C-alpha cells in the first residue's frame, strides 16, 4: 500500500491495495499506521458490496449498530443490517425522500460538525463511508483536524480545558435544527453521556479536542456559558487551516478516526439528486470518563 498526502499530516490517498479482498495482517497494520499518522484515508476506485464493506471494516474492530436502525422499524429501513448506516436521501422503496419526511429531517443533522456516536459512552473509533451514487453537484464531506486545532490553542486555554467534562446527546444536535421526534420508547438512547473535552490518542499519545454538535453542556457550568464556549472552540477548530473537503467520486471509500476529527456533510439538491453513501463504524474501546448520571 502506498500513501500520498492530500493534506499534509491530516489526509492521505491510499493506493496499491484491493480492500474488497481479504487483507493480510501486514496490510491491516499499514492501514492502522496510516490512520495514526493522518486520521483520514481516501481509497479510490473501490467498488464494494455491503458485505465486502462490512468485511473490510471488521479488520479494525467490532461493528457498531447505528442509532437510527435501533430506533426504527426494520420495515422502514432501506438497508437491513443494523450495522450499515444509510447515508442517503432514499426511502425504503428507493424513492427520493420528501421535504417533510421525518428521516430527512433527522439526517439534516449530518450537516453539523460532529463526531460519530459521541452520544454513546464510548463513542466510535473509525468510520468508513463508501460512495455508491453521488449527486451532480455539492454533497462534499468536510473534515476538521482536532489534533492541529488543539495544538494551535494558547497555553492558558489548554490549561483551562484540560479537565473539562462535556455532556453529549443526539437530542442536543437535532434540537439545533428544531427536530425532536424520536418515537416512543427511545428516551434511553438520547440520554446524555459524558466525555472529556481533551482526549489523548491511545496509539500516538497526541492530544486533541473532542468536539461535536452533540455537546449540550459542560459539567459544573451554566448551560448558556457552556454552549457559548463550545461554539467558540468549534469556530476555532473549523478554521480553513484545520479542514479538508472531500469531493466524492463513485466507488470512493473514506476512512476517518472519530477520536481525532470532526466532519460534516455539505448541502446538495437532495430533493432532485440521489446521494447514496453507506457507512460502517467501529465500536469505541474505552470511555473517556466514568458515566455517572448527567445533570437534568
Describe the structure.
With 296 residues, the chain is α+β, with helices and mostly antiparallel strands. It has a single domain, classed as Double-stranded beta-helix, CATH 3.60.130. The chain is built from eight helices and 15 strands. The chain has a seven-stranded mixed beta sheet with strand order 1-2-3-13-5-15-4, with helices on one face. Strands 12-6-14 form a three-stranded antiparallel beta sheet. Strands 8-7-11 form a three-stranded antiparallel beta sheet. Strand 1 (2-7) and strand 2 form a beta hairpin. The longest helix is centred in the last third of the chain and has 15 residues, at 223-237. It is globular.
Compose a concise summary of this entry.
This protein has one domain: Clavaminate synthase-like (Double-stranded beta-helix).
Amino acid at each position: 500500500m502506498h500513501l500520498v498526502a492530500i493534506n499534509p499530516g491530516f489526509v492521505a490517498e491510499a493506493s496499491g491495495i484491493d480492500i474488497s479482498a481479504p487483507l493480510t495482517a501486514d496490510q491491516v497494520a499499514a492501514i492502522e499506521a496510516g490512520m495514526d499518522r493522518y486520521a483520514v484515508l481516501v481509497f479510490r476506485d473501490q467498488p464494494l458490496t455491503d458485505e465486502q464493506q462490512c468485511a473490510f471494516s471488521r479488520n479494525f474492530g467490532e461493528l457498531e449498530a447505528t442509532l437510527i436502525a435501533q430506533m426504527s422499524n426494520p420495515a422502514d429501513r432501506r438497508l437491513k443490517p443494523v450495522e450499515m448506516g444509510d447515508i442517503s436521501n432514499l426511502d425504503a422503496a428507493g424513492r427520493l425522500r420528501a421535504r417533510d419526511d421525518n428521516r430527512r429531517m433527522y439526517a439534516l443533522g449530518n450537516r453539523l460538525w460532529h463526531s460519530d456516536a459521541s452520544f454513546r459512552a464510548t463513542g466510535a473509533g473509525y468510520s468508513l463511508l463508501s460512495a455508491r451514487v453521488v449527486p451532480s453537484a455539492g454533497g462534499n464531506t468536510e473534515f476538521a483536524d482536532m489534533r492541529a486545532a488543539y495544538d494551535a490553542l494558547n497555553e492558558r486555554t489548554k490549561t483551562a480545558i484540560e479537565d473539562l467534562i462535556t455532556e453529549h446527546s443526539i437530542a442536543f444536535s437535532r434540537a439545533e435544527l428544531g427536530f425532536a421526534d424520536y418515537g416512543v420508547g427511545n428516551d434511553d438512547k438520547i440520554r446524555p453521556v459524558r466525555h472529556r473535552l481533551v482526549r489523548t490518542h491511545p496509539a500516538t499519545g497526541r492530544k486533541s479536542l473532542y468536539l461535536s454538535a452533540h455537546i449540550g453542556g459542560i459539567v459544573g457550568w451554566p448551560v448558556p456559558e457552556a454552549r457559548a464556549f463550545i461554539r467558540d472552540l468549534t469556530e476555532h477548530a473549523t478554521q480553513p487551516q484545520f479542514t479538508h473537503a472531500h469531493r466524492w467520486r463513485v466507488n470512493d471509500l473514506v476512512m476517518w478516526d472519530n477520536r481525532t476529527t470532526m466532519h460534516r456533510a455539505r448541502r446538495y439538491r437532495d430533493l432532485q439528486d440521489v446521494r447514496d453513501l453507506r457507512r460502517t463504524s467501529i465500536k469505541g474501546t474505552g470511555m473517556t470518563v466514568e458515566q455517572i448520571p448527567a445533570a437534568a
